[in-house]
Amino acid sequence: MSKEAAIIEENRAYWDAHADEWFGTTALPKYGVMFATEDELQLFGNVRGKRMLEICCGSGHSLRYHAERGAGELWGVDLSQHQLDHAGEYLAQHGYHARLICSPMEAEIDVPKGYFDYVYSRSAGRRTCRGRLTGLLPI
Length: 139
What we know:
The chain has a 4-stranded parallel sheet with strand order 3-2-1-4, covered by helices on one side.
């Protein structure tokens, strides 16, 4: 197993084991402790009818934030199936649906190219996808 694969597997195991502890703790509109919020910054602007793809979507709380603002289509990617199980249940409890894909963000993700209005990650931090997300936006 390569070093990168070992790191991804360790990360997946952590999130599968600890998803319950992190449920809903870090999500839009918050960007972090003592930071301005999305409600203040309006980085996304009007998302009504927009196709949104969140990388590292976790428990789905940020997807719900966009759904409540009228996003047209929600997609989420996370490397933890436990996180995605939470996201699917959480969104369904609030009347929303997202296409959820279990994959590390470093992988070639099976989503339509040039399709999304927004591809974002609130949680990926400074990690890079080494260009694998290129072509997901229609620009």
